[in-house]
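Consider what follows.

. . .
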Amino acid sequence: MKDSRINYIAVGSFVLLVIAGFIITITMLTGRTGAVDSYYTTYPNVGGIKYGTQVLFEGYPIGQVEKIIPEQKDKRPVFKVILSVKKDWKIPQDSVALVAASGLLSAISIDIKAGTSETALKPKSEIKGNAGGNIFAAISDIAGEVSDLSENGLKPLLKKIESSIDNIAVPLAETMPVLLKDLKTVSNDMAENLPLIMANLDDASSRLNSSLLSKKNEKRINETIANIHKTSSDFTSLSSNLDASIKAINTVVKENKNPVNKSLQDLQYTLKTLARHIDSITYNLDGTARNMSEFSRQIRQNPALLLGGTPPEDEAR
């Protein structure tokens, strides 16, 4: 009887020690091992966050989530998350509380990114929240886009490619034997005539070297190249002189702008005057031409008129 009691006490003590160790381990992991200070932050979405979610400071565990309170802000739901943090832990005012996961399979946690402010937040103050990105939602969105692309883009494209290949394959299968036969004929002809073609090319190359590239022609070619170079230099100089002349003309025109404008106005007035009197001028010129014609006719008929003779009587009269 006494031995059984001792066994019960030993087993009970062992269980209590295990439970105590388990509790201590949990508190160590959550960063809550003593007195705490309370802070809060707000998020529009608290997916993955619950009571006991670990709170980290630059990756170091300093507390846990104590409570989540739904609220309304600007007619939209937000969630106030109460954080328990180690007492007297210094959190800069411009720190940001991010919802993040350290790995793909890791649990969601709230990681406080330290700011640069030298002033620390007071307990019960708000830490600016940032929901960050949900990797599973992003993967789901990407999977949906890939599925939509496969359904609406790749499958129709593959069907079109398959149809195009079928359309090409049938005519190609019918014409391929003829093409191969023609190709074989052409290759045989080339094999037979290639030596002759190469010989002709060799002969033409030899003649070209002996005639066109002779010493005499080489000298002429060099002289031609030199003349072309000289002409190019002269043209460059002429272009420079022409540019200078144009600049000088522009300068003269600018300096004599008023006289040039006056001359153009006078010329315009003169042309307008001539245009107004062109009919009378033309009429007078026509009469003068007729008189000169009559005078020359009478001189041809009676040259003595030049010496004071009497003109013959007009037959028409």
Summary: The chain has a mean pLDDT of 79. The longest strand covers residues 60-73. Residues 135-211 form the longest helix (77 residues). The chain has four helices and seven strands.
